[in-house]
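anyone seen this seq b4? input:
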Amino acid sequence: MPLTLEQLNAASPAEALALLDGLYEHSPWIAEEALAQRPFRSLAHLKHALAQVVRTAELDAQLALIRAHPELAGKAMVAKSLTAESTNEQSKAGLTQCTPEEFERIQQLNAAYNERFGFPFILAVRGPRGTGLSKQEIIDTFARRLDNHPEFELAEALRNIHRIAEIRLNDKFAAEPLLGNDVWDWHEALARHSDPGFAEKGQLTVTYLTDAHRACGRDIAQRMRECGFDRVEIDAVGNVVGRYYPAAPGARYLMTGSHYDTVRNGGKYDGRLGIFVPLACVRELHHAGKRLPFGIEVVAFAEEEGQRYKATFLGSGALIGHFNPAWLDQKDASGVTMRDAMQHAGLRLDDIAKLQRDPAQYLGFIEVHIEQGPVLNELDLPLGVVTSINGGVRYLCEMIGTASHAGTTPMDRRRDAAVAVAELALYVEQRAAKDGDSVGTIGLLNVPSGSINVVPGRCLFSLDLRAPTDAQRDAMVTDVLDELAKIAQRRGLRYTIEESMRAAAAPSAPALQHHWERAVDALGVPVFRMPSGAGHDAMKLHEIMPQAMLFTRGQNSGISHNPLESTTNNDIQLTVDAFTQVLHQLAEETQI
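predicted toks r here
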């Protein structure tokens, strides 16, 4: 019979320790210390308690825990001396059936890893879905992590140990994250669409109104219909809009959603998690035949990233009346105007103005998003409540000097555009660091038609400047632009600068933020409040209605805008549960 929390909470210390045997390899001290926190409110509470014991342990204890684990396909596996749990996991990953070549490669990696770090390579081989990684995925991850910094790799080993323990706990409690599995699978299915040039490389890139983008829109619309939405449409800018009607006509709606476009060679969860989580919640309402005293409007925003055209937040901006008609004349890298792309997609340009929403018809906007950073991972927390979204400004710039021969142009005669931008990049780094929580980035830096033996005469570059308040952001912008002017003048260069995006800081609405806090607490997970350094569609909706966000922990130290962006079925399940809690709270509040 599966273990229950009631059993665990009621058991004697010795009995409880026996019930949790095998979670952490040869390390019963972890469960013993965590059990002092009984009673546990939920399985998530127990998982957190275990992780915190390890997180606060001395370094020697952490290293001993890591070294208690066997090598993957190592001597213990060959000698059949693994624990039952490790035998099961390595077997499911196919490591007990390696080809001679695979086995040799893994042994080489084991030796190199141990030599570099002094402890065995740890990987939760059952993976983020719990069904197992392929041998190739294991080998690729092994090779990639060999390049990590030792301190980072120690933390990554511990994170994988917690994931192993989480899956083992799921097995003990027969806890299957069914909705988390579905949402995880939906991300995988949508990721089969990618733009030409990237799809062939196995990379995910979906930019505004390409064939892949439009295929994603159709898939999301179909998924909405399958989940029971009453009305589904693709609007005049390509947003996919699903409406689940309220119990009574004329009631207000709760708006939610996020974007489905991606950066180039990006991840599967950025934006899309905020679409699929509410879809799962609506599906459960539909299956139960339940209506709420408010309607639910899920918007899969067509464009947020600004990758194909310089029109960041196009999809959400259209809903607040901020679609700029001048965007229609912008051209992509192939010379296709946005107007032509929209007409080719069958969108009705004359209807764009009609997309503007009346905030009086809405309770507000909430958004779920993968964190896109390392904070939750470092704290071993699955969820974070967002307090505010940083304000940001972006510029597309060009530094203009003189292209000349690299061998014959003396150093004091050069008009090197690239070196000037490099100098500015160092200044941006120093200036942003002065504010602590401000950030500045030159993410694009390109020498057009550059050559190894030519002093760069032109350099195209971007500026991305963000801060928690508008005043802090604007002070940094002033300093950076002043420094840009000084560098150009001192070096005898010219420059152009075009503002491509400006977004005000967006503090969360206290009432909606409190709903997220109550929801997280109800799951037995500590409530952790944090700002968002990244921009989100919520910051556009903030301009006309209250908003609040919830972050979901990402794997691989929370990396995002990267193929390694990932999360687990268990963290997704908690996110769906938290969203459901918010719906129930709002339903009770609306009925009062």
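The longest strand covers residues 391-400. The CA atoms of residues 23 and 165 lie 5 Å apart. kinda curious what u guys think
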